## 1
Amino acid sequence: MASSERTELDYRPSYLAAAVAAGLVMILYILTLSPETAMWDTSEYITAAYTLGIPHPPGNPFFVLLGRVFSLLPIAPTVAMRVNVLAALSSAVAAAMWFLITERVLVGWFVERWQRVAGGALAVLIGGTAFTVWSQSVVNEKVYTVSLAGLAIIAWLTVRWCDEPDGPKADRTLVLIAYILGLGYAVHMAGMLAAPAAGLAVLIHRPKTVLRWQLILACVAALFFGGSSFATQPIRAAQFPALNEGEPTACRDGLKAGCTFSKGTYDAFMYNFNRGQYGKPDLAERQAPFSAQIGMWWLYFKWQWVRDAHNEHPGLQGALAMVFLALGLIGGWVHWKRDPRSFAFFGPLMFTLSLLLIYYLNFKYGASQDPDLGDTVQREVRDRDYFYLWSFSAFSVWAALGLVYLWESLAALLGHETERLGTETVILPTRRAWAITSPVLLLAIVPLFSNWTAASRHGQTDTADFAIDMLNSVEPYGVLVTVGDNDTFPLWYAQEVLGVRKDVLIANTSLLNTDWYTRQLLRRPVYDYDEKNGPAAYRGQKWVKPSGPPMHMTLDEADAVPIGQEITQPQLFTAGNIRAVVQPRFLARADIFVLQMIKDNVRPIYLSRTSGGYGAELGLQDYLLTQGLARKLMRDSIVAGRDTIKVSPEGWVDVPRTAALVKDLKAPASLIAKNEWVDRPSVGIPYLYVSTDYLLSEAYRMQGNVAGSAQALAQAKAIAKATQLDKELFGADEAPPAAVPTDSARRTPVPAPVKKN
């Protein structure tokens, strides 16, 4: 009788121990939890949850429903924190599942329960403190931790099914697995990642299952029922929630107009479901060599074990990565040898979560990968380590098994004893040997201490502060043109969740290339300006509330605008006293709408300074006046004066308005309190503040205001130092470039014929 079979009748999962271990991880996450939103998609998903809206395609409907529930629970002082708790809880649940799986593998290995519990605890510690898992668990950046919980639950159910494939609960377990797969798909497409391995395990242990059509039909029905929350999207989209990306409905004028769910709605839904507005090449068309794509995974794998001070100690990071990789490979081998029954599922699962996933994702070079190659290769706009969260989390099972094997091997060298188990005699290390060699287990706590600074979001409010600052740079009822994710999603959050400056209309150029987004701008109501809570710079003045949309266009006219047009000759654009020359270029649909808003002159137009040279691309550089974090489009030529100064290379600066806005900025304090800005692709946000203070310092210097210049420069340096930008910005002349990097993180839809829904 095999050892695993010998002990299975006596085996009872240690659910209480798993819950305790997961609870301790949950406490860690709460201690390091973000009280607010964060960069990238965090604001989008928190806003979608709070407003019961639709995030970017395919929309993640089950997450939205879960997030909506958590946003209402009285478990934290802010909406963002409540949704962040959902992320923490999801990862803690996943950790409990990895505990149970590790313990199950050790059943045929160790006699005493404490040894198996120790192994499970190691898996929780290693997986729960891996950098990407930890950092995603303390702020709900996307849906990955919720998806991880579903995958881990499926993994545990499949391992239990492998124990008794012909047991009384076997069929019900398979139906439950299918249902959770459907739920997982409605959270994220990765919810299906466990399906191939689960199917292979069924074929290995009970191949006749494929002939049992009643069971197959039950599983298919459960799968579709689990994913049924997608049906909520056309219904909710037709009610025009504040966040309605993709707008999967044909009801352009709302349900009140007598719209029915016709074939047009089905087409719109499927276009959204299949992510039609985003382009991705066939898998055969590799965006980078497969070796480079594996190299990306390896880079992110190195991050998991020591992310703090990674620039100062790259050798240590690589060495620890090799240690944990070796532990994982040893653990996989031991798993195969000691418990081939569950390995039939878990081995293929790890293959799916690593090599197969790498091949399927087909990424370009990572944003931080192979920096020596520079711009000679195409790169992702940000680091994509979160796509491998499932891989790094599940890897904790094998890493724990490898560490336990190392512990046992070292203990066996110091002393062993024989023990009778039924008719068998086994050789085990002595208790004294176990105790003496136990310090080797300290390897498992390395990530806890070496990732704390980089993973923790405790007390960080910089993203929400930035959103408020940016909105407050715009005059009441203004239009703010943005270009990317990080200068748009936080603003949506500030408006719809925090209720800040809803009078400002945000026009994102990436999304203006779609028909649905343009319609939403035309339909959006004009909200009253809350002067009491607005910036001091705009108080005590009379602001006229516009009565209509930002453009004099109907929905049909907007839908008819082409995806763009090629300009082969310089073109003169006029709007009142504005005379701008647009040089030969491809004028995208978004550019046409921006120019139309300028021509119609319904509301003040501002360009976020994160848009870089976008204004110059449209020939408007001589009409842009910097005011705080944005540039106002003036309706006539700008005239130099004491308060209006041209600072190279930024351009014209409204000194008193900028000074008044800078005085009320919220983010500098939170940025200065930050030890490091780990995410380099979003570094344009702190740089925006450094540049603004430096710009103000230069303007003061040109005015002869020595004290004001020194004070502004001191704050610029303080922010740069706190976010570790000082070395690259302030050289010997202490003069960084004043221009702000463009927010290049654009999820730009693929130009395609505009559909009339």
## 2
Amino acid sequence: MPDEIAKINQLELLSPAKNYEYGKLAINFGADAVYIGAPKFSARASAGNSLQDIEKLATYAHRFHSKVYVALNTILYENELNETEKLIWQLYKAGADALIVQDMGILEMKLPPIALHASTQAHNIQIDKVQFLEKVGFTRVVLARELSAQQILEIKKHTTAELEVFVHGALCVSYSGQCYISHFLGGRSGNRGECAQACRLPFDLIDQNGKTMLKNKHVLSLKDMNRADYLDELIQIGVTSFKIEGRMKDENYLKNITAFYRKKIDAHLENKHEYKTTSIGTFQFDFEPDTEKTFNRKYSDYFLNGRKEGIHSLDTPKSLGKPLGKISAVTKDFFQIQTNQEINNGDGLCFLNENKELIGLRVEKIVDKKIYTNQISLLKKDFELFRNHDHQFIKLLSSIENCRYIPVNLVFNETQNGFSLTASTETGNYTSFQTIELEKEIATNKEKTLSAIKNQLSKVGGTIFKISSLHINFDSVYFIQASKLNELRRSALEELNHKLGSNYKPEEILHQPNDFPYFEQELNYKANISNSLAAKFYQRHGVKNIEKAFELTENNENKQLMITKLCIKYNLGLCQKYQKPTSTEIPSYLKYNNQKFLLEFDCKNCVMLVKS
């Protein structure tokens, strides 16, 4: 039982890794684990990585006991099955800690003893599904973003699998794994890692009588997620892993957002000994993380605390950044703004004009609070300005490469024939011991010599270590050449560094197929079954009738393309369930160019359907 409790109480901050370099940065800025795309078959097809880079990242991460999860979470076609099985073994040998998967055909393969995480693409929204995934071999389930805190709690009560929850980043408007609109429009499937982000497009909204209710608006585009204020609640519920979205975001976003959530989680851990993080190290941040200073479309907690207004980004799918204030004056040469924030040359500002179009401008120079830009003709008094490129903040972030250190205690002793140096981590779990033979020479200036010894032994620049304490145990004070002290320190820290990595062993999970019954006996195209192994998997678990995946069906007319928790009726104040509408208009169609999509509203389940 104590081991089970310890495992439940481990907390993990999980950050995205576009590549090896970004993975290192995520770990350096606070991630307990990172997720990175496999060479192929990742839900971000453009973010694939070589086996060599994944192995390098695992080697780096494991020194901090940080983990590397590899996304292999597309659906697979028949001709890709053999290649996928071979790739899984290669990833296991490269040191990956877990695979994030969607396609259940993978469980019919001969698998190495590697942990499996059920991707959010597997549509993990209900207790029955999570229980099933646990029974067939998944150690972790990545829950749908749409779930409320109460729903997550109910799931946690019925499973011992680890639960991973998104806490920050861009949002897909459709339930993950249930979006087919990109494939329908242009053959680029989200379930194949090729989503064209059709949900960010401008649509015309048409009512039941053919009247245009909204023209050229981003009615399916959501604000970004930010659940920083609810981490304590999620921790109490029993969430294990807190996931940041953003494998395609830049390094400033990665550094800033990872550091922000690291500080939040560490603040929770302070004085709460029943919780601990899954990696080791301490952090020193030479900047103040700010979620509004890197890419964002404004924020919401999505549906964590139930349905509420203001979760969509109707006017633009682009980044707004941080609110600055309103323009107080505009001349032909410069403008002024009411703000308590400092504005700098090179800042990128933006605003929504009278037509609700997002316009960007660059600060060219500032003189006595007069701001000069080559876009002055577009500005008007009382426009609200945002800063979506903070030049000084980004400059500072770009200059910092590491904020994580392993605290080390050093003990420098005299031996019979020379000296010894013991280096150990603060936890005492890892120790290195080095000796050096030297002829002993009594120092003439004891105070100066001791100071020099301390100075040389404390030099750890370029390493992952920071000296927490240094004890020197001599009967007398001896003069020792700086080169010898440096040699002894380097050897001790190199051995300690090697032990940190070599002693880390990924958890091994043996996979044994079973016939635990699936909770449904018929599966349509929304189960995303695209190969014979996936079909065999579900048949073995009792499913009788199986329909091919959307991507393998020639005729997809009149099919559901999206199921969304976003409700356009609710956003327009037309919901009979939660609101008291005075209008009888019913949003019925979305139109993009010459393509129309039917809207249906399942009010019983409080979801909206977009159909072809």
## 3
Amino acid sequence: MKAITKTNPTPLILVLAILQLIPNCIEAQMTPSSRPSTLAGRSTVYAPNGAVATSQPLATGAALKVLQDGGNAFDAAVTAAAVLNVVEPHMTGMGGDVFALFWSAREGQLGGLDASGRSGSLATPDAVRALGLDDVPYRGARSVTVPGALSGWSALLEEYGTLSLAEALTPAIEIAEGGFPVTPIIASQWRGSSRVLRQDPGATATFLLDGQRSPAAGEWFQNPDIAAFFRTLAREGIGAFYGGSLGARIVEEVQAQGGFLTLDDLKDHEPEWIEPISVDFKGYQVWELPPAGQGIAALEMLKILDPIDLESMGHNSADYLHHIIEAKKLAFADMARYVSDRDHLEGDLNALLDDAYVERRRALINPGRAADRVDPGRPFDSGETIYLSVADGEGNMVSFINSVFEYFGSGVVVPGTGFVLQNRGAGFTLQDGHPNQIAPRKRPFHTLIPGFVTKDGEPYMAFGVMGGSMQPQGHVQLLLNLLVFGMDLQDAIDAPRVRHMGGTRIVLESPVPDDVRLRLWEMGHSISAGGSFGGAQVVLKLPKGWAAGSDPRKDGMAAGH
């Protein structure tokens, strides 16, 4: 089939016939007049003393006030996370996990935190198979793992913050008790989860008004249960959750619904300070956290793409998007095969970033044709979410991600607690011999990845793009926008994205034009309608002061002082 060019005009009837063959593409978005040419335009925020970017304005405001009152970036990050637990409850909270990359001005170095929980002591392949299941349950109590978020909040405050946990929780308590108007994107996602919430009495009572419906945009919502839970934590400390009376309530309900947690699982949980991993890219050092997260996939993608002349292809051209998609397939095939709990890896996964190995993987990309199936390589011999970033006047920078996985996680809310428990257990496999097979007290494969960039050994940018498997893809596209095409920070966030879904199926944001879509289809990509493309939050260090940007795909905002 010939491509449509100015030098070889094609009759309109043939163009329409071609478009009708594109799978799932005959949508309103295929009509040029129905699609915007850009996403929402915002200006990059510039500030002299400190900056915050989160996915919800009340969280941004609370974090900014902490900075203005003399708190540091770690205080502000935890305060924002607690507020987001209240105002964006389907995405995040105490019932989930936390990961962070951070620059400590006191230490003059980058650090990492893994505050993710493990599976319950009762979680075995036989226990799942005895239920007549072929996979680990995606929802419900059997998908619940130990919630690590609260331990992460506490660890960051104790090691690097200036506020107590009680002080950091105060804004969230006030908002939960007094109530707040729900923002539009959150309201839409909440509405889409109503069926899940109706499956659990605690979730119904907590998150559906009158037990019937989700709140509409602008409608007032209160959560006195989570306010009371926070108050108990403020008074008794996190031990009340990890092995104490609050934890006992959690375990009792989870076990009553057939889940695998024990009180000792909560009591024995500890967050871990871990060493980040990195690659060089265009004169910068890009940092991610090691497994069990997806960070290594983002780094492998960058290494695959690094020597390719993407700039000459043109931003969001068909050739450019094709190479991003094909690099993603290769990196994700490796990740699916090898990534698991750090304690259960088959070998040193740094081998996935070895120059010779990456070169072999890069050679598999056909520049003119989409791969239908990509197998993992052999790097060694056998073997949903909120993101926020904060910086302060001292030079501390925090890249922070907190999630309950799917919208409203497991769908389980222990009555009276006010928050949902995550469904991270769904990240396990039942496949015998796989490093990510479910087992007692084991970390599941994790999607959460905060990102960080340094230059010449100094902090440059705290960034993240939340959204399941979109996260590595979003990290790479954001970095290419900034470091290859030299975009303004907010423009780099706003720029339309591609998301590879599986096989040859991709989704494209609406501003991507029809000629690019048609060329991708000719290359063998199956273009689907819809899809979500994550939400970025970024804080960038200037020679003097800060720049920050927030994604228009979310309800949030960036602010500074």
